[in-house]
Amino acid sequence: MRHFSYDQAYLFNTGNDLMSYNLLGSHYFCDSGLEGYTFCVWAPEADSVSVVGDFNGWDTESNRLEAMGDTGLFWGQVIGAAKWDNYKYCIKDKEGNQIFKADPYAFHSETRPGNCSKLYPLNDRFEWTDDEYISNRSRYGTIGPINIYEVHLGSWKKSSDGDFLNYRTIAHKLAEYILDMRYTHVELMPVMEHPLDDSWGYQVTGFYSPTSRFGTPEDFKYFVDHMHSKGIGVILDWVPGHFPKDDFALGRFDGSAVYEYADDRLGEHKEWGTYVFNYARAEVRSFLLSNAFFWIKEFHADGLRVDAVSSMIYLNYGRENHVFNRHGGVENLEAISFIQTMNDSVHKYYPGVIMIAEESTAWPRVTGASDQDGLRFDYKWNMGWMHDTIDYFNRDYIYRRWHHSQLSFSLIYAFSENFILPLSHDEVVHGKRSMIDKMPGDNWRKFASLRTLYAYMIAHPGCKLTFMGNEFGQFIEWRFYEQLEWFLLEYPNHKTLQKYVSELNKFYLNNRALWDSDNGWDGFKWNTVNDADNCVYAFSRVSGSGDEILVVLNMTPSAFNNYKIGVRRCKGYLTVLNSDMPEYGGSGFPGNLPDETFYAYDDVGYNDHEGSIVVDIPPNSALYLKLYERSLS
C-alpha cells in the first residue's frame, strides 16, 4: 500500500522537489489483494477536496481526501479505481463553491473535447531498448553536428481517412524519413495535452500527459524508443511560461491564484489570453522542475526547447502597466532563478540532455555558464539571424545590393551565444508565406534562391533547425489541420529540392569544418564580404584539424566568369557541392561542368589574402569548395 510521504511533501513545499509527480497525482497500488489508486493534490486554499470519477459514479461525497497538516496537500486512496477510469477533483472553496478540476499531475487525459483525467499507472511496464543510446547520449548532445527537423505530429502525415496517426505508426514513418533526409534530431511541437488544436499545443492543460490524440503514454514511449533505435534524438517543445484559462485546468485552481501570480499585472498575458506561472511560489517551482524531469526521465527526451523565454524573464513583457523588481529593474528575478536552477539540475542529473531557449531579445548570456551569471541553456534560437536572412532573401534581386550587410551582420554576434539557426513553424504561418513563396522571381528563380538560402544556412556557424515541408518547397503556408502536401513530390522541382536538401544535410554531417569549431573565429574566416555590387559573399569554415570548406554565394540571377576570391596559400580548391547542378533543378552553368571542378591557386594576393583563385559562379547559387592542400611549401 502506498503511503503519504511528509518528507517529499517538505521538498515540494520548499520548491526543491525534482520528482513531485511521484507523490502528487494518481498512483496505482496493489496490496493484500486490494487494488486501487491513491490521489494527492495541492489546493492550499480549499475548504475540502474529494475525488470523483467512473469508479464512484461521480459522487462528490464518496471519496473525500484528507488534508495533510499544513502542507496544502490533500491525499487519499480509492479501492477499486482502475486503469482508464475518468476522474476529476471536486474542490470546495472558502465560499462553499464547488470547482471540478482535472488532475495537474495526470499521466493520461481524455481526448478532446473531453477534459477529464484518466487513471494510468506511471510504470506501465513498457520495456525500453535504448540503454546504449542513453549511455552514449553526450555524443548526440552538445558534441557533434546538430540538424533538427521540426514536426507537428498532427499534420506531418495523416491516415487515409484524415484522422491522426498513432505514435507508433508515426514513429516508423518519421524515423525512416529523417534517416533518408539525414537530420540528426526531431523536435516535436508540444505533445503535452491541450484542448484546442488551433493552439498547436502551446496552451497546455495536461503538463504530465502526452496528448491522447495519438495514443497512450506507452505509445509515446514507443515513439521515443524507436527514434533512439535509429540514432535520432528527440527534443520536446516545453511551455513553462504560461497556461490557458480553461475552467477545468490550472487557473484559479482552488478558487484562488494557486499556480499563477495573484497580481493581474504579472499574472496574465492578455495578448495570449493565458495565466503566468508564479515563479516565486515554491510549490510552483517544484511543479515545473518536476515536469522538466518527468519528460527526460520517464520519456527519455534528449532535450527540451523552452518556449517564450522572453515572456518569463521580463516583468514588462507585452504589458503596459510596468512592475519593477526589488532593484528597480524589469527583470523577473524569480523566473531567472527558476530557469538557472532547472538548467543546472538537468545538466547535473542528465548529462547530454540539451536545453534550448526560444528567446527573442538581446538578453545577455542566455547560454552563459554559472560563473557568468547566465541563464545556463545549451543553445539559443538565433532569431536575429532568422529575421535578417528571411528579410534579405525576400527582397527582389535588384534591391539586394543595398542590403548587403544584412547577411554579414550576423557574424558580429554569431559567437556571443551557442546558437541554433531556426527556420521554424512561426515563419510559415499567419500570412508570412511559405519558405519557397518568400523567394522572389519566377518559379525557377524561387527554387534556385531557396537552394542558396539552405546552403548558406548549413554553412553559417550554429546548429540548424528547419520546419517540416520547408525541405521540399511546399507553396502554401503550414496548415495545422491537414497533412503536408506530399503529392508535390510528384513534380520535378519539389523532388529535386528534397534530394538537394538530403545531400546538403549529408554533406554537413560528413564535413567537420561545418560544425567542429562552431563557436569562435577559429572556425570562420571571411574571404569576400564587401562585394555589394555583385551580391557575392565568400567565407571559409575550418575544423580544428585544419579541414576547410570555402563557401561562395551568388545572390543574383547573373552568372560570373573568372571571379577572383582571396585565399590563403594552398594548391587549390575542389568543387564538392554546387546548388546549380541539373540534378538539383539548376542550370548546370557553365556548360554543365562536372561537380568536381578544380580551381588552382594563384600567388597574386587579393583582399588581404596571400593568394587567390578564379572561380566560375553559377547564377543564384551556392558553391562549396574543399581545400585541396593547405600549403604549397
What does this structure look like?
The chain is of the alpha/beta class and 633 residues long. The protein contains 16 helices and 30 strands. An eight-stranded parallel β-barrel has the order 10-11-14-18-19-20-21-22, surrounded by four helices. A six-stranded antiparallel β-sheet has the order 23-24-25-30-27-28. Strands 3, 6, 7, 8 and 9 form a five-stranded antiparallel β-sheet that branches. The N and C termini lie far apart (78 Å). The relative contact order is 0.08.
Features:
6-stranded antiparallel sheet; Immunoglobulin-like; alpha/beta; 8-stranded parallel barrel; elongated; 24% helix; 633 residues; 16 helices
Kindly summarize this structure in a few lines:
The chain is of the alpha/beta class and about 625 residues long.
Secondary structure layout:
Elements lengths: L5 H8 L11 E7 L2 E9 L5 E6 L12 E2 L5 E7 L6 E7 L5 E4 L6 E2 L7 E2 L12 H5 L1 H4 L6 E5 L1 H4 L10 H15 L3 E4 L3 E2 L12 E5 L6 H13 L3 E6 L3 E3 L19 H4 E2 L4 E3 L5 H16 L5 E4 L2 H5 L19 H17 L4 E4 L21 E3 L1 H12 L2 H4 L4 H4 L10 E5 L11 H4 L4 H17 L3 E5 L24 H19 L13 E8 L4 E7 L5 E7 L5 E8 L4 E7 L19 E3 L10 E7 L3 E7 L6
Parallel strand pairs: 10-11, 10-22, 11-14, 14-18, 18-19, 19-20, 20-21, 21-22
Antiparallel strand pairs: 1-2, 2-5, 3-6, 4-5, 6-7, 6-9, 8-9, 12-13, 15-17, 16-17, 23-24, 24-25, 25-30, 26-29, 27-28, 27-30
Helix pairs in contact: 5-6, 8-10, 15-16
